[in-house]
What does this fold into?
Amino acid sequence: MSRRQQHLVERHTILSVVVGSRAFGLATAASDVDRRGVYVAPTEDFWRISKPPTHVDGPLPEQFSWEVERFCELALSANPNLLEVLHSPLVERCTSLGAELRELSPAFLSRRAHQTYARYAQSQFAKARARREREGEPRWKHVMHLLRLLASGATLLESGTVQVDVGPHRDRLLAVRRGETPWDEVCAWRDELATRLDQALAHSPLPEDPDTARVEDWLASVRRRSLRSEHATRVPGHAP
It folds into this structure.
């Protein structure tokens, strides 16, 4: 990790949360602390030939951060990982801009979630099946998270809200993780959740498309405010 990247994460992060098993309510004693964050690169850095990085890995173990523009782009496409960052109950750092981003979360939600959640789960289940046929069993932890993802996607389309904590599914999902659930039963649950996801699409309260204009307006305001703040810190006596 370069000094520039570390500086961006340590000095310009507006939102940092814990995701993964700890946020889902599926943590065990061996679970890592998976951190995800959003930083705002200084506006003037974009005027240079060498642009700020769109993401940074680190500096802490299991930590990954996105520059706010890239974060918004991915969240508008209904990327499940990004939507879960916005709704994680485990917030470690949240500036005023971070609070604004979380308040903006409904603007990112749309029926596009059906495609992203279903497509990812389908492709990953195919890989899990291939691994089982090749090695005797799949990676059960991965299978557990795919089932959780399908359940979360179905809830999102049905209710219009992102559910991070697995709630009543916890014990059943942990049994899958331990390899205690027969493969046929896992597949039947997968099919049930996939059907629920498909059926929820037609009557979902979510709009067809996200509110891109609202997100872009906010992003532009972030750039303007960042520029004013940069100038204020350089000019003595200048009011922000």
